[in-house]
Design goal:
It is built from 3 helices and 30 strands. With 401 residues, it is mainly beta. It has 2 domains: 175 residues, Sandwich (Jelly Rolls), CATH 2.60.120; 172 residues, Jelly Rolls (Sandwich). A hairpin with a 4-residue loop joins strand 11 and strand 12.
Length: 401
């Protein structure tokens, strides 16, 4: 090299030029990459609706309780949030989307990021993991930046649309997502389906998502009475307080083209008794639900007590929905059926129907007519009350949408 300084000079010059070219490309590329990919951590705000909500802000299993009196609570990325049987909460995210947590619900705020620089084409990122329970989601319209809103559960991943309302319900066995507006793309087991407005799908663990079905769903199990009655319904009997001792009977019978529950009592001697079936439902209604309608078909063969009895509470068939409002106060709604009222008894909340004919019944939208508005459905009772009676009920549905 010492003998050829000219060669050394050319090598140094070449290396310097290569370094210059590398820096000339890599520095702007690095700056651009940083501008495009750099993100800032974001916080959400938790508001307790009722009860005590547990929050682990560090994701380390150390929970702290918050109540309504705590006011708005900042919750960072990675936080775990739990409600119990008596608590509910609302989460408002940094870009104005919301998540309403029902009772017995657990979520994790997996990722909440927005681009550090306005020049970045990257979206705001919001990933919510629902570990169990029910969450009603409101995806806000993106304003300045696009948004990636992803919901994860043990069974699926759902990518929400630009703006819309959704409900996610997660158990150990399956996850269900409903779209009330907009759309969602649901992926599980390597397969994907797209939900349109007012559609839903239920994904079982380890299986692909089935095709979408209408969002309306039935809260009643075995309303056709095709299974053993005691599997989904409980029979109960009551003599009231008038000293009688003849019980009514409830049983499943074949009635033409259907199975039905028959309520029968004979030999009453002018005293009241009640017999019925009750199904415990124990479900919060979706926050975004727009209708709740009870359907049934009834057939009255005999009633010895006219109309609805002396207080409009003794009909040969009564449908009774027991529920709670959002504050936990108990309430109920009922509707009775009768075919004769020779004694001109009161028939409040009763309906005159033909005798020995199957009569379809469809309630009004109970979310619009009931005050207070139902929040939690406790149970559905179907029963006969009065003196002697012979009546049947079939095809019971409680449809929420």
């Amino acid at each position: 090299m010492r003998r050829n300084p000219e060669l050394v000079a050319w090598i140094v010059l070449g290396l310097s030029f290569a370094a210059f070219c590398f820096l000339a490309v890599s520095i702007p590329w690095g700056i651009r990459h940083y501008i495009v990919t750099a993100t800032d951590l974001q916080e959400a705000t938790l508001e307790v609706i009722n009860g005590t909500v547990l929050v682990d802000k560090q994701g380390m299993g150390t929970f702290e309780g918050y109540t309504r009196e705590s006011g708005p609570v900042p919750v960072p990325e990675g936080s775990h949030i739990k409600t119990d049987a008596n608590s509910r909460a609302l989460i408002t995210f940094f870009e104005k989307s919301t998540a309403s947590l029902a009772t017995e619900t657990e979520v994790r705020l997996t990722r909440m990021r927005k681009p550090k620089f306005g020049l970045s084409p990257r979206p705001n990122v919001l990933i919510l993991e629902v570990k169990g329970g029910t969450v009603s989601l409101g995806a806000a319209m993106p304003d300045e930046a696009p948004r990636h809103f992803e919901v994860r559960s043990p069974q699926m991943v759902a990518l929400l649309g630009k703006e819309g309302s959704y409900e996610v319900e997660v158990t150990n066995e399956a996850s269900q997502i409903l779209t009330y507006s907009s759309e969602a793309v649901v992926t599980a087991a390597g397969e994907t389906v797209t939900l349109g407005p007012r559609e839903r799908t239920m994904v079982a663990i380890g299986l692909p998502p089935p095709p979408p079905v209408p969002a309306a769903r039935d809260l009643i199990a075995d309303g056709d009475f095709t299974e053993p009655l005691e599997k989904n319904w409980e029979i109960y009997k009551s003599q009231g307080g008038d000293g009688g001792n003849v019980d009514g009977e409830a049983s499943v019978v074949i009635s033409g083209d259907r199975m039905a529950v028959r309520f029968f009592r004979s030999g009453a001697g002018g005293n009241n008794a009640e017999v019925g079936v009750i199904q415990k439902i124990d479900k919060d209604l979706p926050t975004l639900a727009q209708s709740l309608v009870l359907h049934a078909e009834v057939r009255l063969t005999y009633q010895s007590l006219s109309g609805g009895g002396y207080q409009s509470t003794e009909y040969p068939i009564i449908l009774r929905l027991n529920y709670e409002d959002e504050y936990g106060s108990e309430a109920h709604w009922y509707h009775g059926f009768y075919y004769q009222n020779r004694d001109n008894n009161p028939t409040m909340n009763g309906e005159l129907v033909p005798r020995n004919v199957w009569v379809p019944y469809r309630s009004e939208n109970l979310l619009e007519t009931l005050q207070p508005r139902p929040f939690h459905i406790t149970s559905l009772q179907i029963y006969a009350s009065g003196w002697d009676y012979d009546s049947r009920v079939s095809r019971v549905r409680l449809i929420v949408e």
